[in-house]
Task: inverse folding
C-alpha cells in the first residue's frame, strides 16, 4: 500500500464492484490479479457482468491467470504485455456505454495507463476504481529534458536521456503518467548524493 | 506616451533596475516585523495612485523588457504556454478581460475599439495595431490566450471549475518561481499546490479552495506571495534549474545588495463570464536588496522578518543557503525601534 | 475572507422590467434591462441571478435561471412558474410586478455549468426547469457540441418554449407530454449512452430524484451527473434564534427563512445562491437545544448529524434554543 507523503500524491482506494453497473471492465497487471481474486468468489452472480483483461508480466509464475480464468467471469482475455492490454482497452472503451465502469489494479504506471486510456474517452480519473498491487516502481519524467524513465526504484536516479541526476518527487502528473524528476545537483553540479532504494 | 520603459535584461548581463519611483511603488509584502503564512485574500480593488495596486491590471516601467524576455523564453520552449482543447471559450474571455482593463487603465498606451465582433486593438509600447474578429481564432496570429499573454506582464493560469474543484487547464509560465506549467497542466488545486510545506497541515488550502470556488463575476480578489531570487532572472523555471541553480552559490556579502532580489507575486482571481473559469494572474515584481536599502523602514523590517521565517519555508522558497547573508546585509538598518505598521514606504 | 452578502463593494445591478409575457398557462417570461444603460454581463450557460424585490415592505431575494442568450448583453430573461404554495415570490412577480417597475439583480452566478469533459450532453428538463437549458443549447449548438434534450411537460398549454425548441433544434429535442400519456423511460434512455456522456437534470424535485436514482442505479458516476435544484426555503413553525456575535435575539416567522430573519435584523450574513446549494451561507451552530431541520443539499450527512453547522438560507430549527456564531 502506498502511503501518501504529500497530501496530493495519488491514492488508490481499493476495489469494490459498483452496484448497478451493467458491465465491469477490469484491467489487471501482475499482482493486480489479487485485487479481483480477493474481492469475488467463483460463482458470484455479479461475475456475469465482469470482463477481465490481464497482463501477467513478472507474476507469470504465480498462477493468477489460472485463478482468474476459473472465476467464471463473462469474459477473460490475457495480454502478452501491458502495452497490448492498453491497445485493446482503447477498443473496448470506444464502444462502451455509461452503464459500464472501469477498474485497474497493478503497478502505479499500469494504473496510470488505464487512467489515460479512460481520459481519451471522457472518463474522469475519479470514476475509475483503482487498487495498487505489486511493485512500487515509478515512471519519472525529467523536467529538464522531458524524457521519461521507466521502472524507477531509487532516488536520486540518473536521467537515461540527458544524464542529470534527478531527485524523484512525489509530484505526479496524470497527463504524463509520471512523477517529476528535478536535478538534485542544480546548485552544485559536482555534488551528487548517493541513490537510495526507496520503492520496490 | 506618458510612461517611459526601461531597456533592460533579465538574463545574461542582468541590467534590470528599478527607478526611484519604481522602488516606491513596489508591493512590499511584509506588514509587520515578523512573518506568518496565511491565505491573506482580499478584494482586488483599485488602490492608491503611484502604487502597484493603482490599476487592477498593472503596467509598469518594465513592460517592454519583460515582453521581450517572454518572447525569448517562448521561442526556446513553446511548452511554457499551453491550453487544453476545451479551454477556448476561456481563452476569449481572458483576451477580452486583459484588453478592456489595459485600455481603461492606460488609455494613452492601449486602445480597444469594438464594433460588434470586429475589434481593433492598438498596443503603442509594443507597436501592435491589429484588427480581428472576436471568437474567430483564424483572425489572430496566435490563439487568443497566447496573443494577449505576449502583451501582458506576469504569468497566468486559467483554471476550469468542475467537480467541486479547480483544474489548471491553460496558462503561460515564463516568470515563474520554480514550477513547471507543462507538468502541472491538468492538475487540480491540491495537486498543483502539493509541494508547499506547512500550509497543507494547517488546512490553509482547504479554506482557500472553498473561497476560490465561490469567486464571483465582478468581484476579483487578490493575495501577495513572495520569495527570493539571485539575479534579476524572471525565468527561474524547474526546466532550467540546472542553469540558474548555481547562481545561488555566487552570492557574497559584497555583491548581495546587487544580486539578491525580493520577488513578489501579486496573484489575483477573476471569474470569467462565458466559460465560468477563473483567471489567475501571477504578476512578478523584483527589487534588489540595495534598492530596498534606500527605504529605511523596509530595510529595518527585512532584518526582523528574515529571522522569523520557519526553516521549512526558507527551504521551500529556496533561499536557505543565503539566508544568513541576507540577515547580515540588513542588520545595519535595524534601529531597534518600532516600525510603522503596514507596507507603505513611510 | 470577504463574505458576499456584505459589501462595501456592491456589484448588484439596477434593472427595469421591459416586458412581461405569458409563455404558458402558469409561466411568465420577464425581460430585464439595466437602468443605467450599461451592457449586462455576459454569462456562462446555466447561470442564475438572485432577484431582489420589495413586496409590500418585505424584501425578497430569489434565484432564477437566466434563459436569454448569453451573448445578448442588452437584456436578461427569466421565466417564472406561478406556484400555488408560493411564499410570495412567484405571486408577486405574476400579480404585482408591472412593466417599468424597478428591481435589483445580482451578478450572474453559475452552479450548473456545462462540464468540459463531456463528449456528449444529455439534458433532461421538467416543466419550468427548461430555463437553464435554453442558453446551454444555444452555446452547445454554436460550438458543435453534441446534445439531446428530453423535455417533459404537464400539457402543451402548460409547457413553455417546446414548439420553438423543436423548430430550432429539430430531432435533438424529444418532448413528452404527460396528459397525452407520454412517459420517458429513463432506464432505457440512460443505459446505453456512450462513455463520456454527461447528464444534466432540472425540474421538480420528485422527477429529479427519480432520474438521478435511475442513473446512479445503472452505475453512472456522480461526476457525470449534474442537477440544478433551487430549494425554496420551506415554511415552518416560528422559532427564535440568538446571534452570539451580534448579541441579538431574533424571531423567525413562519414564511420567513432564517437568513431573511437575520438580514431583517440588520445583520449582514454571507450568502450566495440562497437555495441550499452553494455553501456560502454555512454558519456555525454554537448551541442547539432542539432539532436542526436541514433542508439544504450542501452539507454532508455527517455534517448534518453533527449539529455543528446549518445553512440559514433554507434550513430551520425547532426546540428550546438555538445560538449561531453570527
Result:
Amino acid at each position: 500500500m502506498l502511503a501518501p507523503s504529500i497530501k496530493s500524491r495519488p491514492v488508490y482506494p481499493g476495489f469494490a464492484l459498483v452496484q448497478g453497473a451493467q458491465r465491469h471492465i477490469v484491467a489487471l497487471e501482475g499482482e493486480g490479479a489479487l485485487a479481483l481474486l480477493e474481492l469475488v468468489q467463483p460463482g458470484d452472480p455479479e461475475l456475469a457482468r465482469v470482463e477481465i483483461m490481464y497482463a501477467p508480466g513478472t507474476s507469470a509464475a504465480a498462477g493468477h491467470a489460472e485463478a482468474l480464468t476459473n472465476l467464471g467471469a463473462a469474459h477473460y482475455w490475457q495480454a502478452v504485455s501491458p502495452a497490448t492490454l492498453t491497445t485493446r482497452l482503447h477498443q473496448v472503451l470506444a464502444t462502451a456505454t455509461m452503464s459500464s465502469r472501469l477498474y485497474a489494479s497493478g503497478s502505479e504506471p499500469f494504473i496510470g495507463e488505464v487512467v489515460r486510456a479512460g481520459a481519451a474517452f471522457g472518463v474522469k480519473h475519479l470514476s475509475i476504481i483503482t487498487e495498487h498491487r505489486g511493485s512500487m516502481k515509478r515512471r519519472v519524467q525529467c523536467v529538464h529534458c522531458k524524457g521519461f524513465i521507466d521502472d524507477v526504484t531509487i532516488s536520486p536516479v540518473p536521467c537515461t536521456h540527458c544524464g542529470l541526476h534527478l531527485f524523484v518527487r512525489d509530484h505526479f502528473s496524470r497527463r504524463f503518467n509520471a512523477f517529476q524528476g528535478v536535478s538534485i545537483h542544480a546548485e552544485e553540479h559536482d555534488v551528487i548524493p548517493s541513490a537510495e532504494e526507496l520503492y520496490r | 506616451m506618458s510612461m517611459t520603459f526601461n531597456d533592460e535584461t533579465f538574463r545574461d548581463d542582468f541590467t534590470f533596475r528599478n527607478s526611484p519611483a519604481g522602488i516606491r511603488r513596489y508591493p512590499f509584502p511584509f506588514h509587520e516585523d515578523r512573518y506568518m503564512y496565511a491565505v491573506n485574500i482580499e478584494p482586488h480593488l483599485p488602490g492608491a495612485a503611484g502604487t502597484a495596486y493603482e490599476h487592477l491590471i498593472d503596467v509598469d516601467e518594465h513592460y517592454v523588457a519583460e515582453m521581450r524576455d517572454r518572447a525569448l523564453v517562448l521561442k526556446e520552449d513553446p511548452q511554457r504556454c499551453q491550453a487544453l482543447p476545451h479551454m477556448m471559450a476561456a481563452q476569449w474571455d481572458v483576451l477580452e478581460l486583459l484588453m478592456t482593463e489595459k485600455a481603461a487603465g492606460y488609455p494613452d498606451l492601449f486602445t480597444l475599439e469594438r464594433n460588434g465582433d470586429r475589434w481593433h486593438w492598438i498596443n503603442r509600447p509594443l507597436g501592435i495595431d491589429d484588427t480581428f474578429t472576436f471568437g474567430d481564432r483564424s483572425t489572430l496570429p496566435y490563439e487568443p490566450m497566447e496573443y494577449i499573454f505576449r502583451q501582458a506582464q506576469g504569468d497566468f493560469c486559467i483554471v476550469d471549475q468542475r467537480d467541486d474543484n479547480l483544474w489548471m487547464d491553460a496558462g503561460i509560465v515564463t516568470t515563474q518561481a520554480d514550477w513547471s506549467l507543462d507538468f502541472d497542466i491538468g492538475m487540480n488545486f491540491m495537486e498543483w499546490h502539493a509541494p508547499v510545506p506547512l500550509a497543507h497541515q494547517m488546512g490553509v488550502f482547504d479554506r482557500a479552495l472553498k473561497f476560490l470556488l465561490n469567486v464571483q463575476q465582478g468581484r476579483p480578489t487578490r493575495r501577495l506571495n513572495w520569495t527570493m531570487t539571485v539575479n534579476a532572472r524572471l525565468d527561474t523555471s524547474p526546466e532550467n534549474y540546472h542553469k540558474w541553480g548555481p547562481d545561488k552559490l555566487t552570492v557574497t556579502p559584497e555583491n548581495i545588495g546587487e544580486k539578491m532580489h525580493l520577488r513578489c507575486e501579486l496573484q489575483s482571481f477573476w471569474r470569467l463570464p462565458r466559460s465560468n473559469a477563473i483567471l489567475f494572474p501571477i504578476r512578478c515584481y523584483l527589487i534588489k536588496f540595495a534598492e530596498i536599502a534606500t527605504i529605511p523602514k523596509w530595510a529595518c523590517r527585512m532584518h526582523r522578518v528574515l529571522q522569523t521565517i520557519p526553516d521549512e519555508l526558507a527551504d521551500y522558497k529556496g533561499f536557505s543557503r543565503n539566508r544568513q547573508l541576507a540577515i547580515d546585509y540588513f542588520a545595519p538598518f535595524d534601529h531597534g525601534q518600532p516600525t510603522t505598521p503596514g507596507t507603505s514606504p513611510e | 475572507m470577504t463574505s458576499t452578502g456584505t459589501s462595501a463593494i456592491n456589484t448588484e445591478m439596477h434593472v427595469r422590467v421591459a416586458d412581461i409575457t405569458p409563455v404558458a398557462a402558469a409561466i411568465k417570461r420577464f425581460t430585464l434591462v439595466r437602468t443605467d444603460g450599461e451592457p449586462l454581463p455576459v454569462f456562462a450557460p446555466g447561470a442564475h441571478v438572485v432577484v431582489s424585490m420589495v413586496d409590500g415592505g418585505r424584501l425578497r431575494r430569489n434565484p432564477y435561471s437566466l434563459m436569454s442568450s448569453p451573448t445578448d448583453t442588452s437584456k436578461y430573461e427569466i421565466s417564472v412558474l406561478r406556484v400555488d404554495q408560493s411564499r410570495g415570490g412567484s405571486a408577486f412577480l405574476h400579480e404585482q410586478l408591472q412593466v417599468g417597475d424597478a428591481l435589483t439583480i445580482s451578478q450572474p452566478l453559475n452552479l450548473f455549468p456545462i462540464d468540459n469533459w463531456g463528449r456528449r450532453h444529455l439534458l433532461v428538463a421538467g416543466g419550468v426547469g427548461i430555463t437553464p437549458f435554453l442558453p446551454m443549447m444555444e452555446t452547445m449548438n454554436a460550438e458543435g457540441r453534441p446534445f439531446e434534450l428530453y423535455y417533459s411537460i404537464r400539457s402543451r398549454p402548460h409547457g413553455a418554449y417546446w414548439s420553438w425548441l423543436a423548430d430550432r433544434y429539430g430531432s435533438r429535442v424529444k418532448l413528452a407530454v404527460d396528459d397525452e400519456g407520454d412517459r420517458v423511460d429513463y432506464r432505457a434512455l440512460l443505459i446505453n449512452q456512450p462513455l463520456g456522456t454527461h447528464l444534466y437534470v432540472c425540474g421538480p424535485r420528485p422527477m429529479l430524484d427519480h432520474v438521478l436514482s435511475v442513473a446512479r442505479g445503472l452505475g453512472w458516476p456522480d461526476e457525470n451527473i449534474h442537477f440544478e435544484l433551487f430549494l425554496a426555503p420551506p415554511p415552518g413553525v416560528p422559532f427564535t434564534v440568538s446571534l452570539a456575535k451580534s448579541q441579538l435575539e431574533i424571531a423567525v416567522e413562519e414564511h420567513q427563512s432564517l437568513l431573511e430573519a437575520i438580514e431583517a435584523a440588520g445583520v449582514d450574513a454571507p450568502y450566495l445562491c440562497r437555495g441550499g446549494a452553494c455553501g456560502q451561507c454555512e454558519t456555525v451552530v454554537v448551541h442547539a437545544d432542539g432539532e436542526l431541520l436541514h433542508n439544504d443539499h450542501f452539507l454532508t450527512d455527517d455534517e448534518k448529524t453533527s449539529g455543528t453547522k446549518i445553512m440559514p438560507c433554507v434550513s430551520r430549527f425547532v426546540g428550546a434554543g438555538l445560538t449561531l456564531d453570527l
